[in-house]
């Protein structure tokens, strides 16, 4: 059904948002780390791809 998301898509979205919060907190507390941001961007792109392929 269009517009519906299954459990794995929701879990991936929650992981992506949680990752953003953690990377941001790390950056504020200890300074920027390019590899963490790169990893988060890759995770975000994978999540986006999962959402697109599900719909």
Characterise the protein shown here.
This protein is mainly alpha-helical and 55 residues long. It is built from 2 helices and no strands. Helix 1 runs antiparallel to helix 2 (34-54). It is elongated and about 40 Å long. The N and C termini lie close together (8 Å).
Structure described in brief:
This protein is an all-alpha fold. The protein has helices spanning 7-30, 34-54.
Poorly predicted ranges: none
Query: What is the count of DSSP helices, taking H or I runs of 4+ residues?
Result: 2
Q: In sequence order, what are the helices and strands, one letter per element?
A: HH
Overall geometry: elongated
Number of strands: 0
Main structural class: mainly alpha
Largest sheet: none
In terms of DSSP E residues, the strand content is under 5%
Helix content: over 70%
The termini sit apart by 8 Å
Rg on CA atoms, Å: 13 Å
Average of pLDDT: 89
Keywords: Membrane, Transmembrane, Transmembrane helix
Protein name: Integral membrane protein
Transmembrane segments: 12-29, 35-53
Task: From the structure above, extract its key features.
membrane; 55 residues; mainly alpha; elongated
